[in-house]
Design goal:
This protein is an alpha/beta fold. The protein has eight helices and twelve strands. The strands form three sheets. It has a six-stranded mixed β-sheet, sandwiched between helices. A four-stranded parallel β-sheet has the order 2-1-3-4, with helices on both faces. The protein has a two-stranded antiparallel ribbon with strand order 6-7. α3 packs across α4, α5 packs across α6 and α7 runs parallel beside α8. It starts with a helix and ends with a strand.
Length: 233
């Protein structure tokens, strides 16, 4: 921590900044479009405390909101926030578990509101977003949804495996259906680097047919190792 502080330099006194962790150029661009500064990261490429602190310091803002966007990054974000506070920054970590929660939080960010009110609104937007992911099993295992073999397609709902299947679109549609059973006005589909062409369009068509009235947005996120990230608000 002392070395990080020594490298931090003078404390800025400018606007508020949001720093988000994201993996995949398309996903990073979504955060940049929302006004956030992006640190590369993800399930297998987590940023260091020093990297997060460096971006927070270079933002030129006295107040900073950190969006870890992954449960594995939360501890790193907390450590970076503490180090930043020691050099005079006002920092809060919104405990986003997924990029979808991070995007929801960013969409309500309001730099002219009081800092605590802004953070509370972002946290509420994140908490109100149900999130899921479709990935592939790297090895055989016993999951809450039953046994899976290497290469099986897994549907995860807020971190728990709820579907074991054989095809990305089928698992994605079933997962979206489960996520929409309790209602929702907006479904977001973010396609990863390993997703086949047209997957976003096929899931969008499914939502429009099976859940009329729900708006659906699809993006090319480019995130590795995870063909689909899903969100419902």
């Amino acid at each position: 921590a002392d070395q990080l502080l020594a490298e931090a330099g003078p404390v800025p006194d400018e606007r508020r900044a949001v720093v988000a962790v994201a993996s995949g150029e398309g996903l990073a661009e979504l955060f940049r479009a929302g006004g956030a500064l992006v640190v590369d990261g993800g399930p297998t490429c987590n940023p260091s405390t020093a990297e997060l602190l460096d971006v927070a310091r270079r933002a030129g803002a006295r107040e900073v909101v950190l969006l870890p966007n992954d449960g594995n990054v939360r501890a790193v974000a907390d450590a970076a926030a503490q180090a930043a506070r020691e050099v005079g920054l006002v920092v809060a970590v919104v405990p986003t578990q997924s990029a979808l929660q991070g995007l929801a939080a960013l969409s309500v960010a309001n730099s002219v509101a009081a800092f605590d009110d802004d953070v509370a609104a972002m946290a509420a937007a994140a908490a109100g977003t149900r999130w899921g992911a479709v990935t592939r099993a790297v090895r055989g295992a016993l999951t809450p949804a039953g046994a899976c073999a290497e290469g099986d397609v897994l549907g995860l709902l807020e971190g728990d495996v709820v579907i074991v299947g054989g095809e990305v679109v089928q698992v994605g549609c079933e997962l979206l259906h489960r996520m929409l059973l309790n209602g929702g006005e907006l479904a977001t589909v973010i396609c990863g680097a390993d997703a086949a062409g047209g997957v976003g369009d096929r899931l969008s068509s499914y939502v429009r047919d099976a859940h009329p009235g729900v708006e659906v947005l699809a993006y090319d996120g480019g995130q590795p190792h995870c063909p689909l990230l899903l969100g419902v608000e």
